[in-house]
Hints:
By secondary structure, this protein is mainly alpha-helical. 73% of the residues lie in helices and 0% in strands. It contains four helices and no strands.
Amino acid sequence: MDFKELIAYKKAFKLAMDIFIISKQFPKEEKYSLTDQIRRSSRSTCANIAESYRKRKYPKHFVSKLTDSDGENSETIVWLEFSLACEYINLETFNKLISESEEIGKLLNFMINNPDKFGCSTSN
């Protein structure tokens, strides 16, 4: 299986693209701060999933990269909270994106706690 087939990757990629589209409407003065940060962290969630999957021969590396992915996902939540507080997104959009992010977090935690289900050898 390719990392692009992982449910966590598919959902993280969708969230990153949703955030990209929504953040196009953020004020120009946020270009190098909030807009850049929220795009970077949401994209990094995906990138770390891909990297972790390629490192599954080494369970500790697999879990480490997934932990990085989970951290980036949590960072995305913080930027979404700022986006709501600054009134760049409405509550409905915020709740939808937070729900998606929380679901990604649950999937990542399942992967972290069950590396053997993703091709990791626990005998290393």
